[in-house]
Structures are given as C-alpha cells and as structure tokens.
Specification:
By secondary structure, the chain is an all-beta fold.
C-alpha cells in the first residue's frame, strides 16, 4: 500500500519558520517527481513546489511565485522523504499542506498524502 505521510505542521508566528516532511512508503519514489500543494480555507488547492528526480545530485526545483525565495523543497533519497523548508512565513501561508508523488502531468499526481495544517498567526 502506497502511503505519503506529512508531518511538521503547526502554529507559527509571522516571520517564523517550519519544515514539513513527507515520508513515502510502499513504493520507491526515487525516480518520481515529488511536489507540495496547499489549500487555504475556502480556496482551491494550489501548487507550492515540486522537485524532479535525478540520477546523482542534479535535480530541478520549481516554485509558485507566492513562495519563491521563502520556501525550499528538497529530498533525501535514502529515506524516501521530501521536505519543504518554509521561512519568513506570512498569515496568507496558512493552509493544509499536501505532499504528492508520482507526477503524471505538470500539476497532476498519482499519490497524495492526508495533509498537515500550517497556521501562521500572532
């Protein structure tokens, strides 16, 4: 059974940082592109970041304009885990963050996690 399990969400003050983790099991995602999406209350789910697979240490990362320069996506191949480092958080970053694996098209993925809540508030 394929599972993507997110962790690391929580409550943080504006300007603070959080690191989300996505642990994959049941499938080797090392040859798959992985992504992070988010869904704010009352809004549709939106793309945040994606990272390609690579042979060796070369990979490509893409970010939504709203998070570029503040968020960093990375992966640990040995642990089959993807991370999202979030800095300079803003109240508008408040959302449920979802990990996705096995990219089918640019924004369509085969596997999804259950999500982790991130709340940015003073």
């Amino acid at each position: 059974q394929v599972q993507l399990v997110e962790s690391g969400g929580g409550l943080v003050q504006p300007g603070g940082s959080l690191t989300l983790s996505c642990a994959a099991s049941g499938r080797d995602f090392r040859r798959d592109d992985m992504g992070w999406f988010r869904q704010a209350p009352g809004k549709e789910r939106e793309f945040a970041a994606t990272i390609t697979w690579s042979y060796g240490d070369v990979y490509l990362a893409e970010y939504a304009d709203s998070v570029k320069g503040r968020f960093t996506i990375s992966r640990d191949y040995a642990k089959n885990t993807v991370y999202l480092q979030m800095n300079s958080l803003k109240p508008e970053d408040t959302a449920v963050y979802y990990c996705a694996g096995g990219r089918i098209t640019r924004r369509e993925y085969a596997y999804w996690g259950q999500g982790t809540q991130v709340t940015v508030s003073s």
